[in-house]
Design a protein that fits this description.
3 helices, 53% strand
């Protein structure tokens, strides 16, 4: 009886440890690649605009968030609004670092976890959006009720090379790793943008994007104890954005999830 109790206790201990102490070497960018693309309102006298912005973005890997990311981004977009529909497109580049903050004394003896690291990464991407909208009777609100959005992006640098090295070698027992370096994220969004009744130079917008990055979840290879309850189940993505425009200056804040949990703040200028 005592032997059975000890066996059960050992099994439960393994389950607890493997469910709470896993490291996922995810790509850095997913979650921060579906940035907000400013577009003119239909009532605006100028129907096209160019927008330049700089962003500070952060993200963390699933489960215990042991891998954290910091990114600086530069974005350049062009947009056009017509009666009933709008389009936007642009490019972005980013530079940042990935840090493994989890430390364990067994790293060197059992090789169960990846070692601590702080590695650089960089890349670029393309963004597009095309959508339909309706304007309110007074012209102060545009309901962008459906938009098709896409992002094509790449990831390079020491962190991407490290992921590939782990993927092609012996994966640590408590680790999941993806070797993906190119990403296509696509989906639909809905948005409302409105301007002040008295001051038309102030605009607010709220946007919800729902989509995914095809194949991202399936790109992971797992160690022996990393995927017991399948934390990474799908390649789905969502993004919630707030956008503020005061004359030529813009500010946006976004929270998102695409395997990583991510957030981003951007300051821009339109002309």
């Amino acid at each position: 009886m005592k032997t059975k109790i000890n066996t059960l206790f050992s099994f439960l201990l393994v389950v607890i440890l493997t469910s709470s102490c896993r490291t996922y070497l995810t790509p850095a960018l997913p979650g921060n690649n579906m940035g907000y693309l400013p577009r003119p309102m239909e009532v605006d006298s100028v129907k096209s605009l160019t927008h330049v912005s700089a962003s500070y973005a952060g993200a963390s890997s699933p489960e215990n968030g042991s891998v954290s990311f910091e990114l600086g981004m530069l974005n350049i977009n062009r947009a056009h609004t017509f009666k009933g529909f709008n389009i936007a497109y642009g490019v972005f580049g980013y530079l940042g670092s990935a840090e493994n903050t989890y430390q364990d004394n067994t790293n060197n003896t059992k090789a169960d976890y990846p070692p601590s690291f702080n590695k650089n990464m960089y890349g670029f991407g393309l963004r597009t959006s095309i959508g339909l909208h309706s304007m309110s009777a007074n012209g102060n609100t545009d309901f962008r009720f459906i938009n098709w959005e896409n992002a094509l992006s790449t990831e390079s640098g020491a962190y991407a090379d490290f992921r590939e090295e782990v993927y092609n070698g012996k994966v640590y027992n408590y680790t999941g790793v993806s070797n993906r370096k190119r990403f296509w994220t696509t989906g639909l969004s809905t948005e409302v943008i409105f301007r002040g009744k008295r001051n038309h130079d102030i605009k607010h917008a709220f946007r919800l994007f729902i989509g995914g990055t095809p194949g991202l979840a399936n790109s992971f290879k797992y160690g022996d104890f990393a995927d017991i309850d399948k934390i990474i189940k799908s390649s789905g993505a969502w993004n919630l954005s707030y956008f503020l425009n005061i004359k030529k200056i813009t500010l946006s804040f976004e929270i998102a999830e695409n395997i990583n949990l991510a957030s981003k703040i951007s300051l821009g200028y339109k002309f």
